[in-house]
Design brief:
It is globular, with a radius of gyration of 21 Å. It is an alpha/beta fold. It contains eleven helices and ten strands. The chain is 30% helix and 16% strand. α3 crosses α4. Strands 3-2-4-1-5 form a five-stranded parallel beta sheet, sandwiched between helices. A five-stranded mixed beta sheet has the order 6-7-10-8-9, with helices on both faces.
Length: 287
């Protein structure tokens, strides 16, 4: 039985053995390999095959050992992609052949990641599985951009929303009045292509056009791009800036905190605002 352990994971005795015939549903985080959990690294070091998504950074795939098979199973909007039943069947077949199967998913498997669908398929096939949570882009990606999803001065609640249904449009069951009026911080996944509609719905239900919006493209990746704008202008601004998917869209007052919490820019010499909310509110009042 082949088993490798990194200098970090070998000191953690609570890590589970990756047994033959098992499938581990593992979150790879939003992109940066440094955001992998120790359990995810342990899985990469001890698997036989990795069935991976489109949004997994290639640097993460290089952490597997020699002889590990890599199988691409990525889904990208508007492009030919494997269908979900086929992916689930691959997991079942590989596990039944006695392999240690690592299903590697961007972000967190159970946050807009279809991990639940794959897990239930494994249950129906009586294949044992384990879930290794990962950092979801709606939290980790915003933190990299210097935007906290909650802050005592702006919001004590946050709502995560998918902006893309299985048919390619906006989910038809979204309750726009509740989203607009009930959540001070909205974080949309997979919503870039529908940003015009999203902004129109929210403004129609009472969200101010000047509300702060941040669009983070390829969050935590080396080519991360961040656009700060407003709800009324966000769709046009995204087109003008040529923002590309994958992107996370944050809508709410907490976005303004980036002026003081953009730690990544500060590490390259930028000067941060120690009181961004007060200064922004003073600016808004003056204008």
């Amino acid at each position: 039985m082949r088993k490798r352990m990194s200098s970090l994971s070998k000191h953690i005795t609570t890590l589970a053995d990756f047994e033959p015939g098992w499938v581990w549903l593992v979150g790879a985080g939003p992109g940066d390999p440094g955001l992998l959990t120790v359990a995810a690294l342990h899985a990469l070091e001890n698997c036989d095959v990795v069935v991976y998504d489109a949004l997994v950074d290639p640097r993460i795939l290089r952490l597997v050992g020699p002889g590990v098979r890599l199988e691409y199973a990525g889904k990208r909007g508007g492009k030919p992609s494997p269908v979900q039943p086929d992916i689930s069947n691959i997991l079942v077949r590989r596990a039944r052949s006695g392999l240690r199967v690592l299903r590697l998913k961007g972000g967190d498997p159970f946050t807009f990641g279809r991990g639940g669908e794959e897990g239930l398929a494994l249950v129906r096939a009586r294949v044992p599985f384990r879930v290794i949570p990962g950092i979801t882009a709606g939290i980790g990606g915003l933190a990299y951009a210097g935007i906290p999803v909650t802050h005592r001065e702006t919001n004590s609640a946050v709502t995560f929303v998918t902006g893309n249904s299985s048919g390619g449009g906006l989910p038809p069951d979204l309750d726009w009045p509740s989203l607009a009026q009930g959540s001070p911080m909205l974080v949309f996944y997979m919503a870039l292509n529908h940003l015009d509609q999203i902004a129109d719905h929210l403004i129609a239900q009472g969200r101010p056009k000047q509300e702060a919006v941040a669009i983070i493209s390829r969050a935590t990746w080396q080519d991360q791009k961040i656009l700060e704008t407003t709800l009324g202008d966000c769709a046009a601004a995204a087109r003008a800036a040529r923002i590309k998917a994958p992107a996370i869209i944050a809508i709410g007052e907490s976005v303004r905190l980036r002026a003081g919490l953009d730690w990544l820019s500060a590490s390259h010499g930028a000067i941060l605002d120690p009181d961004p909310l007060a200064n922004q509110w003073a600016h808004d009042k003056a204008s």
